[in-house]
Design goal:
- There is one protein chain.
- By secondary structure, the chain is α+β, with helices and mostly antiparallel strands.
- It folds into 3 domains: 88 residues, Phosphorylase Kinase, domain 1 (2-Layer Sandwich); 223 residues, Transferase(Phosphotransferase), domain 1 (Orthogonal Bundle), CATH 1.10.510; 151 residues, no CATH class.
- Helices cover 40% and strands 14% of the residues.
- The strands form 5 sheets. It has a 6-stranded antiparallel sheet, covered by helices on one side. It has a 3-stranded antiparallel sheet with strand order 7-11-12. The protein has a two-stranded antiparallel sheet with strand order 8-9.
- The relative contact order is 0.07.
Length: 525
């Protein structure tokens, strides 16, 4: 058994020599707070992954906050090359939604690290863990922003290890690699296992690179990858943002691999019955097992997601994410959520406009009909009055008849009696023949059940003109009733005219007054 110590022929121990398999850095403690790494001073640790530590640092000379990714002690040559590859690739990607790389160097001349952009915020993994489910438009906005960064990377030409490559496959799209700043900026990070073109730089034979729940079926099968693999992985992230659970929650690798290859997962509608059909269709297309049936590039996916967002709000996806982050950072109900979820669809908005227009038209038509009926009633009433006067029933001018209609005292008392028996005062038992009624009169004033009986003013309390005219209007037969006292009939006729004037004025001023239906009925019958 090899002990790392070489013995001489005399079996006496020789001077111990370091085993090439071990390095001094393998036993180095991680840097402490305020410790310096080049021009950088450690402020605090941020995260710890499988192969590296991440620290928040201050660049002393530039006086700006940065972040570094420092390999853990005991790193292998493979992890070292992956870190350097990430630095080389990311340094060629200048995009507002991709984490920027500034420098690569060695700590204590042995452990490599990357100096990169510091994103003050959190990762999507923690956001989902805290809020469980993201609102539909916010989830679609984040996925759309990431898809645009993927499309940008797909179209770049860059040089790595002396060779030029076109296009880039990230291969490790997952919530932990999507950062969201406190201002709502979405950033894609960690290109450590990115694949330039169709050539893998650091993947060993039979080793699957990536994070299992987010791998595409072709990654599981070890097939040749292209940018459509990232579209599938982004679909699993979108599913998790919407539901709060993984698309493939299997914990055993064989079960997970079979589910991926067969495309067996719970449809989104089993968790969200109210998901918009368009968003469900976009998600289903991303998760197609056959990559030929998926979106063929990330630009096509971003257009589809932007269309979903525009159905909720006119705000841009970046603005939507920023408002969501700002509102949730204070532990308040996101105002943006209430706005975009309450926004009606375009179809509902159109139906509302049509209904409102129909209501306005109906109101206008109703007003016109009422005014037309009033005008017709006034004309017919004028004809009836003229005909009544020509029949000789009008009395000689008297104190009552010569007064203006508006100032005439009206004090009749209404009684409900049968048309067959008309109750009259004792002094007027002799009934004169009824005056003939013409068709014009009959069309306006049909016989009713109540006939007003004339009494002196002292017999009943004085009422207002409006009350008196309304009382006479509801007893229309009094105007042309066969009464012996022509003065009573003439007073009733003048009262009817007064009512008609007051009623018309009231309807014109307020067609929807509570008494409108009664007044219209009295005028038109």
């Amino acid at each position: 058994m090899s002990t790392g110590i070489k013995f001489g022929s005399s079996d006496t121990p020789a001077s111990p020599k370091p085993n090439p398999a071990f390095r001094a850095s393998d036993f180095m403690p991680p840097p402490a707070i305020n410790e310096r790494i080049g021009n950088l001073r450690i402020i605090e640790p941020i995260a710890s992954g499988g192969m590296a530590f991440v620290y928040k640092v201050m660049h002393e000379e530039l006086e700006v906050v940065r972040a570094i990714k420092l390999l853990k002690p005991g790193f292998t040559e493979e992890t070292r090359q992956r870190l350097l590859t990430e630095a080389k690739i990311s340094a060629n990607l200048h995009h507002p939604n991709i984490v920027q790389i500034y420098n690569v160097a060695l700590w204590k001349e042995e452990i490599p690290y990357i100096e990169m952009e510091y994103v003050h915020g959190t990762c999507l993994r923690d956001t989902i863990a805290h809020h469980t489910r993201l609102p539909f438009p916010v989830a679609a906005s984040i996925a759309g922003i990431v898809s645009r960064s993927l499309d940008f990377a797909r179209q770049q030409t860059f040089t790595v290890y002396g060779k030029s490559y076109f296009g880039l496959v990230h291969r490790d799209i997952k919530p932990a690699n999507i950062l969201i700043s406190s201002t709502g900026a979405v950033k894609l990070a960690d290109f450590g296992i990115a694949l330039p073109g169709s050539v893998s730089l650091h993947t060993a034979d039979s080793v699957i690179m990536g994070t299992s729940p987010y791998l595409s079926p072709e990654q599981i099968k070890g097939q040749r990858l292209d940018h459509r693999s990232d579209i599938y992985s982004l679909g699993t992230v979108l599913y998790e943002m919407l539901c709060g659970i993984k698309t493939f929650p299997q914990t055993l690798m064989p079960t997970l691999m079979n589910a991926k290859i067969e495309g067996t997962y719970e449809p989104i509608r089993t968790h969200l019955h109210n998901i918009p059909p368009g968003l469900a269709d976009v998600l289903a297309k991303c998760l197609m097992v056959d990559k030929e049936k998926r979106y063929q590039d990330a630009a096509e996916l971003s257009v589809a997601l932007d269309r979903i967002v525009s159905g909720y709000t006119d705000k841009s996806p970046s603005c939507l994410v920023r408002e969501y982050v700002e509102s949730t950072s204070s532990e308040q109900t996101p105002a943006v959520v209430a706005t975009v979820q309450a926004r009606p669809s375009r179809r509902s908005f159109t139906i509302g406009i049509v209904a409102a227009f129909a209501a306005v038209v109906a109101l206008m038509v109703g007003t016109i009909v009422v005014q037309t009926r009033i005008s017709a009633t006034k004309a017919a009433l004028a004809a009836a009055v003229a005909e009544a006067k020509s029949s000789g029933v009008a009395p000689a001018p008297s104190a009552v008849a010569t007064q203006p209609v508006d100032a005439m005292p009206l004090t009749p008392v209404v009684q409900s009696v049968s048309p067959a028996r008309v109750q009259t005062p004792q002094s007027a038992r002799t009934v004169a023949p009824a005056a003939p009624q013409s068709a014009a009169v009959a069309s306006i004033l049909r016989s009713g059940d109540a006939i007003p009986e004339h009494r002196p003013e002292s017999a009943s309390p004085r009422r207002s003109d409006a009350d008196s005219t309304y009382a006479l209007a509801t007893n229309r037969s009094a105007v042309f009733d066969a009464r012996p006292n022509a003065t009573n009939r003439h007073a009733a006729l003048l009262a009817w005219q007064a009512f008609q004037k007051v009623a018309c004025a009231q309807l014109v001023a307020d067609p929807r007054c509570p008494e409108a239906s009664s007044i219209i009925s009295a005028l038109s019958q």
